Amino acid sequence: MDKQFGFLEVCAQKLNSSHCGDDLFTNMVGEGKPVLLAECCGELLKIGKDCYLGIAQIILSSYEYINIASKAIPKSKHTWNDCIHVIENWNSGGDFDRY
């Protein structure tokens, strides 16, 4: 098995086992301001940037989503960066759970 494929297969399993997977996907392809829960951001950061963005690229290269990939790929990177800020604020004692 190809190393890259194996890596992304494990990533997909991590993301699918997370109850936040659907929320993260909706944030990537949906319209409007994303809603990011601290809990989901924490799970996303545990999964890792390469893992998350790799899976995002595979999903968005599929026929079903190719027409929105030019917006959704940058949006997925933005979600990653937003989650870093959410977790930093949460760890510093912020009393909110939505960004």
Automatic annotation (TrEMBL):
InterPro entries: DD11, Prolamin-like
Membrane-spanning parts: none
Pfam families per UniProt: Prolamin_like
Residue ranges occupied by any Prolamin-like domain in the UniProt entry: 11-83
Key words, A-Z: Signal
PANTHER family xref list: ECA1 GAMETOGENESIS FAMILY PROTEIN (DUF784)-RELATED-RELATED, PROLAMIN-LIKE DOMAIN-CONTAINING PROTEIN
Protein name, entry field: Prolamin-like domain-containing protein
Origin species: Brassica cretica (Mustard)
Taxonomic classification: Eukaryota, Viridiplantae, Streptophyta, Embryophyta, Tracheophyta
